[in-house]
TrEMBL record:
<protein>
    <recommendedName>
        <fullName>F-box domain-containing protein</fullName>
    </recommendedName>
</protein>
Length: 442
């Protein structure tokens, strides 16, 4: 500031008002002000935790349904609810929407199905009671911490990667691709990240090593997993989750490459690497190992908290820390997950589900080719009335519940179902979709 100039008005406000401003602003705006003003930077250092919680609470408010579902599912796994102690030993982990199960309950197909039905019931009712403020202080704190430390960083990474891949398509108009994302686009992306985490908590069946692989302990096969996905989500919402899954698979492949490079006999970075035994678990993560995909799937299902830790270590070049994280936390998935080659969204699983339950109402709507045009970018959409434009383009304005391996995986790299009609139209998305979806049968 030049000599004789008065400080900006915002910086002359009393400290209590400066703190209030930082707390009520949206997270991005609060961070911008902190970086622009030494005075507000000092205030932020002094009240960092309070500001973070308040900013996070405002951000979480729009995702209360998803945040609550993830919170309850995670707490059910972490608690003693599925041992002889029963859930009543920890009355704080559940909420009105997801009440505690009887003490004799186990984490079975029945309890997971009940959870899925409760989730869909709340979606359809669009209950106003789902207010973030209605939760206890500890519940809010845990939801905010997870939202700010894990959900939002991964959502931002996905957004950057998807837009970069969008702009890299030959038909793309890059100037329109890189327009700031809209509120509905951000909502779809963040919601999909939450829902991926929910799938991790509900469906994972990881084992610590190849020798421990056993039949699914929850009684959930892949066809049942697909049925639960269709119970909780609309078809294009399943595709949103698969976009996140595909992005995270790429990130874990990058992580595994760094981890195995560090311990490769031929190109070690650490002095102890040449002594690594060929039976070291990391040897199974090599690009040449057929075990790699199983470990990738199993480690991915451990949830986004682990991934965020690994990504942070990799991006900060903390290679030894990354190696230790992966070596200690890697798991194998015996039955598959959301992958489009061997997971729940393959044609084999779809056929098995149809054989088991017959044709659903959604299957019949698809066979009749019921009209299903684009009607606007409206979120939330509890009654499945407002598919994104990309979805209606590839299915030519008719209803489809086809997801997974029937849809080219390359479409998910640019997050085709995440974008509003304006971006799809102006940025060349229609032309990309027409090229990439050629030959899709549904």
């Amino acid at each position: 500031m030049a000599s004789g100039e008065s400080p900006p008005v915002l910086e002359t406000l009393p400290s209590e008002i400066r703190l209030d401003i930082l707390c009520i602003l949206p997270y991005d705006s609060s961070q911008a002000l902190i970086m622009a003003s030494p005075v507000y930077f000092k205030t932020a250092l002094e009240y960092r935790d309070l500001i973070r919680r308040q900013n996070g609470a405002a951000s979480v408010e729009a995702f209360t349904l998803e945040a609550e579902a993830v919170y309850c599912a995670r707490r059910m796994r972490l608690s003693e609810a599925y041992t002889q102690d029963g859930p009543d030993s920890d009355p704080g982990y559940y909420t009105e929407s997801y009440p505690p199960m009887h003490a004799s309950s186990h984490y079975t197909m029945e309890t997971i199905s009940r959870f899925a039905v409760s989730y869909m019931r709340d979606r359809k009712s669009n209950r106003k009671v789902l207010s973030f403020a209605s939760h206890t202080g500890e519940q809010r704190r845990q939801m905010v911490d997870f939202h700010m430390s894990t959900i939002m960083p991964i959502a931002r990474r996905f957004t950057q990667s998807a837009l970069k891949n969008f702009a890299g398509q030959p038909e793309a108009q890059s100037s329109f691709v890189h327009e700031p994302i809209t509120t509905t686009e951000e909502y779809r992306i963040v919601r999909a990240v939450y829902r991926f985490e929910l799938c991790c908590q509900l469906f994972d069946d990881r084992a610590p090593d190849l020798e421990v692989v056993a039949r699914n302990k929850h009684g959930i096969d892949l066809a049942t997993m697909l049925q639960l996905l269709h119970t909780m989500f609309h078809p294009w919402e399943v595709e949103e989750i698969l976009c996140i899954n595909g992005f995270l698979e790429i990130k874990y492949n990058d992580i595994f490459d760094v981890a195995t490079w560090d311990f490769d006999r031929n190109k070690p970075k650490f002095g102890y690497a040449p002594n690594m035994s060929c039976t070291d678990p990391l040897s199974r993560l090599s690009r040449h190992s057929y075990h790699r995909d199983y470990y990738l799937c199993g480690t991915l299902t451990r949830g986004l908290g682990l991934l965020q830790r690994a990504l942070s270590a990799m991006e900060q070049n903390h290679d030894q820390q990354l190696v230790e994280i992966i070596k200690n936390e890697m798991r194998i998935e015996p039955i598959g997950f959301l992958g489009t080659y061997s997971g729940a969204v393959t044609e084999i699983c779809k056929n098995a589900l149809r054989a088991r339950r017959g044709l659903s109402e959604q299957d019949l709507k698809r066979e009749r080719r019921d009209p299903f045009p684009f009607r606007g970018d409206i979120i939330p959409d509890p009654n499945a009335e407002f598919p994104p434009l990309a979805w209606t383009i590839i299915w030519k304005d008719t209803y489809s519940n086809v997801v997974g391996d029937a849809i080219p995986y390359r479409m998910r790299y640019w997050g085709y179902v995440m974008w509003d009609a304006e971006r799809i139209t102006k940025a060349g998305g229609k032309e990309i979709l027409q090229r990439q979806s050629r030959g899709i049968r549904g």
